[in-house]
Each structure stands twice: as structure tokens, then as C-alpha cells.
Write a structure and sequence with these properties.
- The chain is of the alpha+beta class.
- The protein has eleven helices and twelve strands.
- The chain is globular.
- It binds iron/sulfur cluster.
């Protein structure tokens, strides 16, 4: 028998089960019930969706919704696990050195009857005899690193919905203040943002959802929005709303080397942008100075004459990147 440091190494039998396959099959059982269920209210996490037509589809065409992929189901699980772990961390840290931070009323439900909105709150942070609605979102490092303030959440269709979700929670359980915590799924780092109730925004959401509910009642649909890859491209109703777009041919690359290159390219994108931004700021600061010593660096500059030229007309191949990861319901 082969041994390693006194421990016998047993060969894996030929018929040993494929664990990845077993897990995928097990997770897939939940696919139908997760993806397609009749709807009885507008879910708070969806309400910030820019497309009202899609919100109507959720009610009227729930049985035609694209099913979640196994990747999406695995991401759900991973996200839930990370978010639950963070609640435990907050509780543990909150007891340390008498900080008295606690998380209470976890998974509390609420319903707004007029707008037919329901939601489930991650918890309430209790501190200094005050209550703060808590919402936790885990995300990929690429997205996490680009979010410096609440305004940055407007960059992506899925993150745009987060502040609206917190506003609804505040309104739903009559609280003034909330905390949105973002967690980097890879490094475990977190960022926190305070959100105060905004009654103007609540009013806008209320009007929007009343329009949606009117359509549902009348079994009619709002107009389609103009096709947008970031919204329609991820929409689980694209195949019934815009069948021509949904049927477009897609080439799927499985070469790991190319996949790794593209992943790396997107990983370093925020750093490359920061490099460019800081570079531009510094160059503007010292424009016109022939030589400037900054720490161990020397910045040299001179004026050069630019030649004028015209670009000849012709066909050009235009490309654009879209991240398929964060939207859990994405089908592509
Ligand atoms: S495909 Fe586009 S327009 Fe149609 S429901 Fe989806 S997001 Fe809205």
C-alpha cells in the first residue's frame, strides 16, 4: 500500500461518483420552483427595474420566464451563505468591547397593500437604542472595486435597484435610516453606506407600481423600451418580448486560456482607469512646466505640433463588453 507521511493513500475506485455532477443534479431539482412561480405581489428587489413591461410580464407570463441556469442557482446559494455569514460577523463584533451592535428581526416580512409590494428584510441593526434597516449584497470583486459611493451603484442595471429596495424597506416598516453593506465575494471585504428615507423617491415608486398594477389588472402591457443590451439582454422575458433579438446567434468560447485573458482584462480595468484618471489630473496640474520632480519621479513635458488628418469613410467593426455574471437570472 502506498503511504504518505504514515497515512495510507487509497486509490479512487473507477466507479466513484462524479461529485460535481451530483451537486449540479441536486441543485437543478429546485430549478423549476425557483424560476417559475405564480406572482402575488411585486417583489421589492425587482421594483427598481427600469422596464415596467418586464414587471408586468412577471405577473402575466410567469410560466414563460426563462429558467435559472445552474450557474445562477449556485450564485444564489453562494450569495445567501456569504450574507448570512456577515450577519453572524456583525453580531460577534457587536458584542466585543461593549459596542452593543446587534442584528434583530432577521428576515422580517412586510407588504405595502396599495402598491402590492412585498419584501423580506435581511435584519435590523440595533445600536444606541436606535434601529437601522440592514441590507447586505455580495458581489464580484470587479463590481465591488468600482463602487466608491451610492452614485456608483447607478452604473449597473442590477446594482441600481439596491437603493430603491432599501427605500421600500424603510417605508414598509416605518424606519428613517438604513445601512446597505456590500461584500466582495472573493476577498470578504465590506463597504457600508447609510441611506435615509427619501419620500420623493417613494412617491415615484408608488406611482410606477400603480401603473404596473393597472396593466396587470387589465392584462395589457406597457410599451417596450428601446433595446438595450444591459437590460433586455439579461431579461428573462426577452424571448417573448423581442424574439428577434433573443434569437441572435451567439458564439460561446470555452477555451480556458481565452477565458482567463478576458477575466484578467476586466479585473485590471478599474486599476487601468484609475491610472489614467490620476495621470490626467497630474498632467493638467503641471501643464506648461518643462520638468517637475515629484518624489522619485520626474515629469517632463513640451509642446508638439499636431498634424491635421481626416479619417477615410469605411466600414468599421464595433465591439462592446457586457458582464454576464451578476444577473442571477441571465440565460446567456
Ligand atoms: S426585453 Fe427589454 S423591453 Fe422587453 S420586457 Fe425585457 S427589458 Fe423590457
Amino acid at each position: 500500500m502506498i503511504e504518505y507521511q504514515g497515512i495510507p493513500i487509497i486509490e479512487v475506485p473507477e466507479n466513484f461518483p462524479d461529485i460535481q455532477k451530483a451537486i449540479y443534479e441536486y441543485k437543478s431539482r429546485a430549478e423549476d420552483s425557483h424560476s417559475r412561480r405564480p406572482v402575488s405581489s411585486n417583489w421589492a428587489s425587482n421594483v427598481g427595474d427600469p422596464c415596467e413591461r418586464r414587471l408586468v410580464y412577471e405577473w402575466l407570463d410567469w410560466d414563460k420566464k426563462d429558467k435559472f441556469t445552474i450557474d445562477a442557482l449556485l450564485r444564489f446559494d453562494e450569495g445567501n451563505m456569504q450574507e448570512n455569514k456577515l450577519i453572524l460577523d456583525i453580531k460577534e463584533a457587536g458584542m466585543w468591547r461593549g459596542q452593543k451592535i446587534d442584528v434583530i428581526e432577521e428576515q422580517k416580512h412586510f407588504r405595502l397593500p396599495k402598491e402590492l409590494i412585498s419584501g423580506k428584510i435581511d435584519g435590523i441593526i440595533s445600536w444606541n437604542a436606535k434601529r437601522y434597516v440592514l441590507e447586505i449584497k455580495s458581489m464580484s470583486p470587479v463590481i465591488f472595486n468600482t463602487v466608491k459611493d451610492l452614485q456608483d451603484l447607478q452604473k449597473y442595471v442590477w446594482t441600481k435597484k439596491y437603493p430603491t429596495q432599501v427605500q421600500l424597506y424603510l417605508y414598509g416598516i416605518e424606519q428613517e435610516n438604513g445601512i446597505l453593506i456590500l461584500k466582495d465575494k472573493s476577498s470578504g471585504q465590506i463597504k457600508q453606506f447609510c441611506i435615509k428615507i427619501d419620500y420623493d423617491h417613494i412617491h415615484e415608486i408608488s406611482e410606477k407600481m400603480c401603473r404596473v398594477n393597472e396593466h396587470v389588472k387589465a392584462k395589457t402591457y406597457p410599451d417596450r423600451m428601446e433595446y438595450n443590451e444591459m437590460t433586455c439582454g439579461y431579461c428573462p422575458f426577452e424571448h417573448i418580448c423581442m424574439p428577434d433579438e433573443a434569437a441572435k446567434e451567439v458564439d460561446v468560447v470555452v477555451d480556458p486560456e481565452i477565458i482567463m485573458k478576458v477575466m484578467r482584462m476586466h479585473e485590471i480595468k478599474p486599476i487601468a482607469k484609475e491610472y489614467d484618471d490620476i495621470g490626467k489630473e497630474i498632467k493638467t496640474m503641471f501643464k506648461g512646466k518643462p520638468q517637475v520632480i515629484i518624489g522619485r519621479w520626474c515629469l517632463s513635458g513640451k509642446y508638439i505640433q499636431k498634424k491635421e488628418y481626416t479619417v477615410p469613410a469605411g466600414e468599421q467593426w464595433q465591439t462592446r463588453w457586457s458582464d454576464l455574471t451578476p444577473n442571477a437570472g441571465a440565460k446567456k
